[in-house]
Specification:
The chain is α+β, with helices and mostly antiparallel strands and about 190 residues long. It contains 5 helices and 6 strands.
Length: about 190
C-alpha cells in the first residue's frame, strides 16, 4: 500500500492558494494604482507579484500530478481578484467628476454642497422638458458617499452621473485642501 503524499495533496494546494491570493491581489492593486496615476508603486508591486507567481508555477510544474494544486491555483486567482478589489474599494484612490442635472433647486443644492466643502460649478441648460441647471463637481473618490448623501437629501430622484478623471488642476476639491495651478517651467 502506497503512503499518502501529504505535500502534493494537502500542503502544496494550500501554499499555492495562499501564494496566488497574494500575487493576484498585488496584480489587481498594481493595475488600479497605474490607472489612477499612482505609477511609482506599480513596478514594486509588479516585481513582488511576478516573483510569487514564478515560485508557485515552479512548484506546480515540479508536482504535475497534484490536481488539488491546480484547484488551489484557480481558487487563489479568484480570491486574489476579489480581495484586491475590496482593498482598492477601501483605499478609494482617484478623482471623480459628478454631473448633476436638476429642473429646479440647482442653486439650493449647490449651496448645500459648497457648505459641505465641495467646489461646484452651475451652468444653465435645456433638457427634454425645459430649462435645467447642470452642476459639476470634481471630488476625491473617497468623498463620493458623502456627496451622494447630500444629493439624495436634497432630492432622492436627482439625476447625476459619475466618471473618473485622469487629471485635474486649479480648483476647490474639499475643505481639506485647495489645488492651485503651478506655474509652468520655462
Amino acid at each position: 500500500m502506497e503512503s499518502f503524499d501529504w505535500y502534493a495533496w494537502v500542503i502544496l494546494p494550500i501554499l499555492v492558494f495562499i501564494a496566488r491570493v497574494a500575487d493576484v491581489t498585488l496584480g489587481t492593486l498594481r493595475i488600479v494604482f497605474t490607472s489612477r496615476g499612482k505609477r511609482h508603486l506599480a513596478p514594486v508591486l509588479g516585481f513582488v507579484e511576478v516573483f510569487i507567481w514564478i515560485v508557485v508555477v515552479s512548484q506546480i510544474v515540479s508536482n504535475m500530478h497534484s490536481y488539488p494544486a491546480f484547484v488551489g491555483y484557480a481558487a487563489g486567482f479568484a480570491m486574489g481578484t476579489y480581495i484586491g478589489l475590496k482593498i482598492e474599494e477601501k483605499l478609494a484612490i482617484g478623482t471623480l467628476v459628478l454631473r448633476i442635472i436638476l429642473p429646479q433647486g440647482g442653486e439650493e443644492l449647490a449651496r448645500d454642497l459648497r457648505a459641505a466643502g465641495f467646489g461646484v460649478t452651475i451652468v444653465n441648460g435645456e433638457g427634454a422638458s425645459g430649462p435645467v441647471k447642470l452642476l459639476y463637481s470634481v471630488i476625491k473618490r473617497r468623498e463620493l458617499r458623502r456627496i451622494t448623501d447630500i444629493i439624495h437629501q436634497h432630492n432622492p430622484k436627482t439625476f447625476f452621473s459619475v466618471e473618473e478623471v485622469t487629471s485635474a488642476e486649479s480648483g476647490v476639491f474639499n475643505n481639506d485642501y485647495m489645488l492651485v495651478r503651478r506655474p509652468h517651467k520655462k
